[in-house]
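Tokens for chain A. Residues wanted.
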């Protein structure tokens, strides 16, 4: 209960861990409209928060001056990522409220042409308010050519960290948010956005800001901007949710064929930058990735073009039980 957590105060001769955290990390007071429903937090919880965040941010600072980090090409990429996110935060957050995040690379892989073929992005997103919560994010991406064709995957996960609950701080278990994958060798593919939902949005928003009320969007960010910042914190700063900063695509994207494009043009369908009032030969609606379409769905922003979005057609036939058994023996796991 909130009452049990309301133990800490900032009185006395020494500064409390809560007060130290507010001062060091620039946390804002919880807005009056919902502060009474948000627990202040115990000294133990705020101590864990202070130590954990201090360590995370120090590791980030150390990396920015690490010669090895610079020589392997990671430093420039990190600077570019942070710069893109800084612009996104300025465009997306309301008033003085900021998006607090600390990024990290787990792995970066490049081909001989300096194209990104594999990356693991990590980040901690912190509440901008005096709430001892963080969301730990993970995004694993790989794309390579193999003998049988393409091997591709992009996997997004999150973990809620409540510093009042030490187990969530120690836990390594993440919840899958969404994924897209294709492996020509084993003829397997898929897109799963089940957990990328309105319900998940409300859970994440309430955990981070202390409320998921529509009114709170006016002092924090809209639902669309929340997802732009959330995925941006995992390497995708593309406002069309199509790929990472270095152009690594996230798989399937849809665009209308010529027949549908003519129909949309005749209907004067305006969505994105395509102008239906100009020449038809210049009317090319933006491509819509599977990720963008799902975000549009759960934010109720499907438009006159994207309402015609089509799911990808299967590339591979369904395997027989015998083939699945062989793959399980050859590679391990379930098929």
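Reply:
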């Amino acid at each position: 209960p909130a009452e049990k957590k309301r133990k800490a105060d900032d009185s006395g001769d020494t500064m409390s861990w809560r007060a130290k955290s507010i001062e060091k990390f620039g946390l804002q007071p919880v807005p009056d409209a919902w502060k009474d429903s948000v627990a202040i937090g115990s000294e133990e919880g705020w101590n864990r928060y202070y130590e954990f965040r201090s360590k995370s941010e120090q590791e980030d600072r150390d990396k920015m001056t690490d010669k090895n980090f610079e020589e392997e090409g990671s430093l420039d990429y990190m600077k570019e990522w942070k710069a893109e996110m800084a612009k996104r935060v300025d465009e997306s957050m309301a008033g003085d409220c900021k998006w607090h995040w600390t990024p990290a690379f787990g792995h970066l892989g490049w081909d001989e042409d300096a194209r990104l073929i594999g990356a693991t992005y990590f980040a901690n997103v912190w509440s901008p308010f005096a709430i001892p919560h963080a969301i730990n994010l993970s995004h694993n991406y790989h794309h390579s050519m193999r003998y049988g064709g393409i091997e591709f995957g992009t996997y997004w996960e999150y973990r809620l960290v409540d510093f009042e609950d030490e187990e969530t701080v120690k836990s390594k278990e993440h919840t899958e948010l969404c994924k897209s994958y294709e492996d020509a060798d084993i003829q397997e593919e898929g897109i799963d956005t089940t957990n990328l939902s309105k319900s998940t949005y409300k859970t994440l928003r309430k955990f981070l800001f202390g409320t998921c009320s529509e009114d709170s969007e006016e002092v924090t960010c809209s639902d669309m901007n929340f997802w732009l910042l959330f995925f941006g914190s995992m390497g995708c700063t593309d406002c069309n949710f199509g790929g990472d900063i270095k152009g690594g695509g996230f798989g399937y994207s849809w665009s209308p064929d010529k027949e549908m494009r003519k129909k949309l043009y005749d209907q004067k369908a305006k969505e994105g930058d395509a102008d239906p009032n100009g020449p038809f030969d210049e009317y090319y609606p933006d491509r819509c990735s599977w990720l963008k379409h799902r975000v549009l769905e759960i934010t109720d922003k499907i438009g006159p073009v994207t309402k015609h979005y089509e799911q990808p057609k299967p590339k591979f036939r369904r395997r027989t039980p015998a083939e699945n058994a062989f793959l399980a023996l050859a590679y391990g796991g379930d098929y």
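The longest strand covers residues 133-146. Residues 43-63 form the longest helix (21 residues).
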